Amino acid sequence: MPKVTVTEVVPARVDAVYQILSDMAQFPRFMKNVEGIQILEKGESWTLSQWVTRLQGAKFRWVERDTFYPEQGRITFAQTEGDLKVFQGEWRLLAVNGGTEVTLDTEFEFGIPMLASLLNPVAKLAIRENAREMVRAIGEAAKNSKETL
Q: 64 pairs with which residues across the strands?
């Protein structure tokens, strides 16, 4: 199963970055390929969210469960239904000199074995590019919040 990992250091505090990351409904502000996110259910340490995105011109829809671990600086996500066979991953935040190290791990599987060799490299590149842009945009938003360094 393809896996994409992006790690960037952003000049903001862990709590400021975590606050933005834990508000899934705001992600369209940071991800140009996300058309919309709707929060379907919300619990004390989780949300169920419906996503609509575009990847290389194709529209993908899914519902994911996001689980929050603020004391660990982690958020996990896993598709519960949708267009992909597997879509899951986690955000990890670590305080470092100069800000926060933000790591996003994403694993995915299209579920079409015959097309995997064609789709996976393109998807990995697009996901990596989108993730980098998103992490940088979230870092900028966190840097400009009240909780800067």
A: 49, 79
Reading the block at residue 22, the tokens are: 């834990």
- Token pair for 79: 């598709």
pLDDT in tens, 125-148: 777 787 788 888 887 777 776 544
Query: What is the greatest pairwise CA distance in the chain?
Result: 50
Give the strands of the sheet with 99-109, arranged side by side: 3-10, 99-109, 86-96, 74-82, 58-69, 46-55, 34-42
Domain ranges of the chain: 3-143
**For residue 114, what are the contacts with CB-CB under 8 A and spacing of at least 6?**
none
Please answer whether residues 120 and 55 qualify as being in contact, where contact means their C-beta atoms are separated by less than 8 angstroms: no
| DSSP category for residue 112 | -
Superfamily classification of domain 3-143: START domain (3.30.530.20)
